[in-house]
Amino acid sequence: EVQLVESGGGLVQAGGSLRLSCAASGFTFDDYAIGWFRQAPGKGRERVSCISSDGSTYYPDSMKGRFAISRDNAENTGYLQMNNLKPEDTAVYYCAARKGPCVPRGYDYWGQGTQVTVSS
């Protein structure tokens, strides 16, 4: 059974940091790109970052500088380090996996999400 389980979300004050984890099982993690997305209340899903199977990373311009994506293939886990958090970062954060390069769509597997709330 394929599973992606996010953890590490919570309530943090503006300016604080959180590290999200995405624990994967049921597929060959090394062969998959791991993406992070978020969805705020009343808004559409937004792409946050992606790391390919070879370690190449992608960030939309709006996410560069504060977020850092990484992966540990030995632990089948992806990470998203978020620094200098702002209230507008409040959202449910999802990780997803796809076999192939980092692209905006076409992810095969999704986690159930973890809530991040940033207070002002």
Structure, described:
The structure is a single chain. The chain has 120 residues and is mainly beta. It has strands at 3-7, 10-13, 18-25, 32-39, 45-51, 57-58, 67-72, 77-82, 91-99, 109-110, 114-119. The strands form two sheets. Strands 2, 4, 5, 6, 9, 10 and 11 form a seven-stranded mixed sheet that branches. The termini are far apart. The model has no long low-confidence stretch (mean pLDDT 96).
Report the span from N to C terminus: 40 Å
Average pLDDT metric: 96
Low-pLDDT runs:
none
Relative helix content: under 10%
- The fraction of residues assigned to DSSP E strands is over 45%
User: Rg, please?
Assistant: 13 Å
Class based on secondary structure composition and strand pairing = mainly beta
Q: What best-fitting shape do the alpha-carbon axes yield?
A: globular
Helical region count? 0
Key terms for this structure?
11 strands; four-stranded antiparallel beta sheet; seven-stranded mixed beta sheet; about 0% helix; about 120 residues; mainly beta
